Amino acid sequence: MAIVKKGGDRQEAHEKIRVLSHEAAHQVKNLGLENDLIERVQNDPYFSPIHDEMEQLLDPQTFIGCAPEQVDNFLKEWVEPALAEDEPKGAVSAGGKVALHV
Predict the structure, then answer these.
(1) Which of 6, 66, 85, 102 has a C-alpha 20 to 30 A away from that of 17?
(2) Global pTM?
(3) Domain of 31?
(4) H-state helical runs in 8-53
């Protein structure tokens, strides 16, 4: 979508990425090589308007949404109270395992 924002055609960009991804898949599946899709996109002149943005566009932090907050809330609301109960607390301190009854 970044290339479309820079004036690229959505269908053309999709087709180019489809072709590049098939080429990269061939490298992995048939030749046992590393996945080089990102390098292929970076080397394709069609994507030159976004080459400077590639690192930011591929930053995993932009894809995780509110997952960190959800995990923190789950730990606080469910895991910590469960571990505070006597049976799990004893098992944890003894290094054993216990089935939690929820």
Answers:
(1) 66
(2) 0.62
(3) 2-62
(4) 10-29, 37-43
